[in-house]
Amino acid sequence: MVHDIKKEGKYSYLEIGEGTPMIILHGLMGGLSNFNGVTEHFPKKGYKVIVPELPIYTKPLLRTNVKSFAKYLQQFIEYKGLDKVILLGNSLGGHIGLLHARMYPEKVKGLVITGSSGLYESAMGDGYPKRGNYEFIKKKSEDVFYDPEVATKEIVDEVYATVNNRSKLIKTLAIAKSAIRHNMGKDLPHMRTPTCIIWGKNDTVTPPNVAEEFHSLLPDSDLFWIDKCGHAPMMEHPEEFNVLLEKWLTDRNL
Questions:
Q1: First to last CA, the chain
Q2: What is the pLDDT confidence band of residue 32, given thresholds at 50, 70 and 90?
Q3: How far is the CA of 4 from the CAs of 16, 39, 243, in angstroms?
Q4: How far does the signal peptide extend, from start to end residue (predicted)?
């Protein structure tokens, strides 16, 4: 199903359904379509699913960092008049969700992270900026998943176009450096937001020990594994991801 992207002022976003607001935060190389499984399922379960396009490549370079995106998210939540939201983020999106929950805990009633950066230095990748080499980009994109077939030509082409755009490449590197600098190891033990951690057992970008560390540091967290799954469980195993998340939301009365 195709949904129209709403454009209002500086915000572009998808909004589907009515009910408890669930805001989805995409990753650095990920788009809104990465969460099709979630956006199709949860509006039927009493959630208003909102997917904002993060201004990863449109902010000034000095404000291309994780903290700036967490503030942008707060501005968006205020613009939409939302309160007590559930945040769901993959990779960089998980990091933004974590920092937002740390900065504005009163606004977040539940947090879901999958393949999140925030603890592990290699989470942003260690070799994307090889411009011009399509096969290298293809291999890098395939490595994100347990099943390389998930890295469709459309996905590879999008990543290839990004790293061959000089402005986008510079901002990609700026975000990666910001994510490494903004390690949240010392923040996590002070965060009381109920957190659902869903992780691919075969994630090579943020390996399983990263999920275990998140779980040990976050005081109110639950950890769930998906087998034969890489860095983006909601793409690779959308049905299993939805089952785990729905049960957690129900158990936590969220």
A1: 26
A2: low
A3: 10, 13, 26
A4: none
Amino acid code (one letter) for 233: P
pLDDT single digits (tens) 71-117: 999 999 999 999 999 999 999 999 999 999 999 999 999 999 999 99
Q: CA–CA separation, 43 vs 15, rounded Å? A: 10
Q: How many Cβ atoms are within 10 Å of 183's Cβ, its own excluded?
A: 15
Tell me the pairing of strands 11-16 and 6-8. antiparallel
Overall CATH class of domain 6-123+183-251: alpha beta
The confidence score (pLDDT) of residue 220 equals 97
Strand duo 11-16 + 47-52: pairing: antiparallel
43 DSSP assignment: G
Nearest Cα to Cα of residue 125 among 173, 197, 184: 173
Q: Domain residue spans in the chain?
A: 6-123+183-251
The pLDDT, as a whole number, for residue 74 is: 97
Phi, psi of 195 (to 5 degrees): -130, 130
- ∠ CA 67-80-233, nearest 5°, is 60
The DSSP string of 102-154 is HH-GGGEEEEEEES--SS-GGGG-S----TT-HHHHHHHHHHTSSSGGGS-HH
Give the span between the Cα atoms of 136 and 128, in whole angstroms.
9
Q: What pLDDT is attached to residue 2?
A: 56
Residue with tokens 């909601």: 234
Q: Are strands 6-8 and 20-25 parallel, antiparallel or unpaired?
A: unpaired
SS3 2: coil
- State residue 1's pLDDT score: 47
DSSP H or E run through 156: helix 153-163
